[in-house]
Amino acid sequence: MTFLGFLIIYLVVLALLVHMGTVYDYALKKGYEGTLVRLRCLIPVYGYLYYRDIKSLKLIEEGELEHLFSFEILSKRIAFYGGLLLLFIIIMVPLSTIVVLSVNNSLLQTLFTTFVIILLFLVHQGTVVDYASKKGYIGIKVGLIGLIPIYGFYYYKNLPKKRNASKQAINEVFKLSNMISRIFIYAEITLVAVIVIVPVIYIFGMAFANIRTDIPNQIWPDQPTFEAFRYLFNETNFTTWYMNTLSIALINMFVGTFLITGAAYVFARFNFKGKKAGLLTILVLQAFPSFMGLIAMYVLFWKFGLLGQPRMLSILYIGGSIPGNLWLIKGFLSQIPKDLDESAMIDGASKFQIFVKIILPLSVPILTFVAVSMFMGPWMDYLLPGYLLRFSPAGAPVDYDITQQWTLAIGLFRFINDQTYRHYSAFAAGALLVGIPITILYMVFQRYLIEGIMAGATKG
Amino acid sequence: MIKVYLNLNPEIKDAFETDYNNFFYDQAGLFVRGYWSVITLGIAKKVDFTGHSALMDAMIGNSSSSYQLSSQITVLDSIPIQGHVSLMLLLEGLIGVILSFVFFIFMFWGIRDAYQVSEKKRLKQKVLKDIAYFKDVYESSFEYIILSPAMFVLAFISIMPIAFGFIIAFTNIAGNASMLDTFDWVGLDNFFALFNFTSGLGSSFGQAFWRVLGWTVVWAIFSTFTVFFGGFFQALILNSEHVVFRKLWRTILILPWAIPALLSQMVFSVMFNEFGFINAFLQDVGIYDVLHNLGMLGVSFDSLEGFSRLLYLGQDNIQWFTNPFNPTFVRATLIVVNIWLGFPYFMALMTGVMTAIDATLYEAADIDGANKFQKISLITMPLVLYSTAPILIMTFSGNFNNFGVIYFITGGGPNAGHASRGFAGDTDILISWIYKLTVDYSTYNMASVFSVLIFLFVGSITAWNLSRTRAFTED
């Protein structure tokens, strides 16, 4: 029943809005505009009748007015206002819920007030920066001064204009529509930033708490300690896991990049029998799910007695990374002009010399990208080690400690997933130790990494 | 004991020997044995030998005899005799087959080379000697020499395991015991089981497969589009002229991309736990009371009916990822959480594209009287979509196989691990299901069948995508 009521209200408001929009456009065609006209248009039926009978200020054709009531225009208008109204409801319902709740709930009240205050700061800053830029002041300094409430505005109000801007243009900064969009933009961006940051703070909080088996449900512990770090280093094989993963990653990076570069050079530069077939095979291999050979790999390890030796996993990583990266490097090498090779050939360089002295130095960017991605691969891979490293090696003693053959991904996952090893704070502490270097690396090189991925997708 | 028994009964011993003395298994070389094992998968089953038990009873007595020597010593009732291990045979066989191909190539090359040299001799041309000959070979087959290490690794680490994974889809290997026993070719039976819901494998895996496939497709579509449009929206907002300190905001918002996904997925699984931080927070700010009043929380599922069942969140706490009654809610949560993980990448990508758009386009639109909405939908949107379309497709096939989100956040649950449902939970996508089938439930044959199907699906998307790119059309 309530749902039906809401629907009726929604439709009535929608009809009012559509009516207003249509009549206002109608009035515009006749040459009337302004706030008063808009208000008059809001009155149903009367508004339309009023402007139908009024004398037109402009010369217009009859058809142009009729066109406003055509199905096409009308349906578009209904869809537009319908969407707008829906958006309004979607924003207003949680907002009003929060406002109502915060009357009784002190925590929510604090959070909500903090949010509004931050929002005011930012909107003020945005306005000041817009205002200052109209006057000809730009740069970081403006942004920082804009953060000081009220003073920031007066500071720039009293400064002389650096640029010739009309008063009207400057006043446009304070227009209602600009203010509203500023509020919306900053509200959205702040909210998203908070959502992004909360899990990050949470994992820091978890690391400095000392929680073994209870689910941590506070964002920051009451008494921060380093106990979890101590536990991690003294009572688990964390350092061994780190070394295992590091050595896998290093072997993978050096051997893998070396192998792939050679193969990619050949595929990019030479024509030989079976080239097309080889490329096609690699393409097909790329489409197989990576762990399809999991059982075969297990049998392979079993047969050759490699179970329980984490370093041996790098063989599998190298094999798995050949197809994708080969295409990537080959795509890059194909772009290096062949004239270079030919002129070197005329100068008497052998194929190997051309490769080492000309091709390699030119392809440093893509090789860096591939090397970094080969290095990063094993750090956070769970599929392979999760299966292959769960088996002890053949002939292991009874008291064999299976944890010593794990990698970081397994160890961390066991901390939150396995009853025997559960320790939430140790997980968070380990995650910080692994995650922070990687995150910084990604942040610093973000542009190259994103470009590299883009190149992989578009150039093959 | 068995030895004595077999000596007493030579005819049984003979039968045994003909069974187990297999020419191919014992005497054949690597290649012949390889082909034989791939074709037959081994013929000697693992057996529990019990024929000697009568003799044993006679010697040490059993529970009903008067002298109880059997109570003094323990003997196994039956002696397991290890037959052929199909898994091992298959692997060795494949290695043999692949190696034999390599040698075939060498053989043909040798025959051809010998023929050419003899032709040269016949025509009285100069024939290269030792070192000069090897130098010539090095120069003329430089490509193959450089390629060979990569190809070798590829053949044995990539092709062989995949071929292995591929062909066990046509066998009846399942269960831990089959790892040490023989299994047989069953042709396409495993595939037919997917369409036959009444018998055997089909009754659990057939239905489960279509359920999981449906959710996988829904998941791939929704997770890709939410992430794509979330990134687009955020990029639009970030590129708005009103934003001050754009670089700082961008750095904050790109954080989820830089944090290793595995870690953030695990953090989410803890955060959204039934007793975790999110629920504690919602309780503290009073949202719980609202939900209680709305009847979405704190009631039993059975008391609800119709539409309100879709809004059921849990009995005592909101069960974000464990709600067994309302999988739709769990799935929706998963898609929303995935936005956090995925939007920054698209945002970063699109802000790059947007800043590269020619500003004169917008000026021209201003002159033509376009409003903001039209500028976005008619200029920004098509240009961004055009340059990110290949990535969109890649993301789609990536999400189709997005193991981490499912496995680390929900573990496939709720309702995971029931044999009658093929062990698949409500949020299991194909890839996580296959992993669990392989690792936890040893149902290798069905796991392999699904892998083959995934390959067909993802492979065709990738091939279609790549066939339109420059790199492919050039070669």
> Residue-averaged pLDDT of chain A, rounded?
84
The dominant shape of chain B is flat
Structural class of chain A: mainly alpha
The unreliable regions of chain A are none
| Secondary-structure element order of chain B, N to C | HHHHEHEHHHHHHHHHHHHHHHHH
Query: What pattern of helices and strands is seen along the backbone of chain A?
Result: HHHHHHHHHHHHHHHHHHHHHH
Number of strands of chain A: 0
Number of helices, where a helix is a run of at least 4 consecutive DSSP H or I residues of chain B = 22
Distinct helical segment count of chain A: 22
At the fourth level of CATH, the homologous superfamily of the largest domain in chain B is MetI-like
Oligomer: heterodimer
| Major sheet description of chain B | 2 strands, antiparallel
Mean pLDDT of chain B: 80
The number of distinct structural domains of chain B comes to 3
CATH third-tier fold name of the largest domain in chain A? MetI-like fold
Main structural class of chain B: mainly alpha
Low-confidence stretches of chain B: none
Amount of helix of chain B: 55-70%
CATH class of the largest domain in chain B, please?
Mainly Alpha
Which radius of gyration of chain B do the C-alpha atoms yield? 33 Å
The share of residues in extended strands of chain B comes to under 5%
Summarize the structure.
With 460 residues, chain A is mostly helical.
Characteristic key phrases:
heterodimer, A: about 450 residues, mainly alpha, MetI-like fold, 3 domains, about 0% strand, B: about 475 residues, two-stranded antiparallel ribbon, 22 helices, 2 strands, flat
Can you describe what's shown?
Chain A is mostly helical and 460 residues long. Helix content of chain A is 74%, strand content 0%. Chain A has helices at 2-30, 35-42, 46-53, 62-67, 71-104, 106-135, 140-146, 151-158, 167-171, 176-208, 227-235, 238-269, 275-287, 294-303, 313-335, 338-346, 351-362, 364-376, 383-388, 408-417, 424-444, 446-459. The longest helix of chain A has 34 residues, at 71-104. The relative contact order of chain A is 0.07. The model of chain A has no long low-confidence stretch (mean pLDDT 84). Chain B has 475 residues and is mainly alpha-helical. Chain B folds into three domains: 2-84, no CATH class; 87-195, no CATH class; 200-272 and 320-474, MetI-like fold. In chain B, 66% of the residues lie in helices and 1% in strands. A two-stranded antiparallel ribbon of chain B has the order 1-2. In chain B, helix 18 (372-400) runs antiparallel to helix 21. The relative contact order of chain B is 0.08. At the A-B interface, helix 5, helix 6, helix 7, helix 10 and helix 12 of A face helix 6, helix 8, helix 10, helix 11 and helix 12 of B.
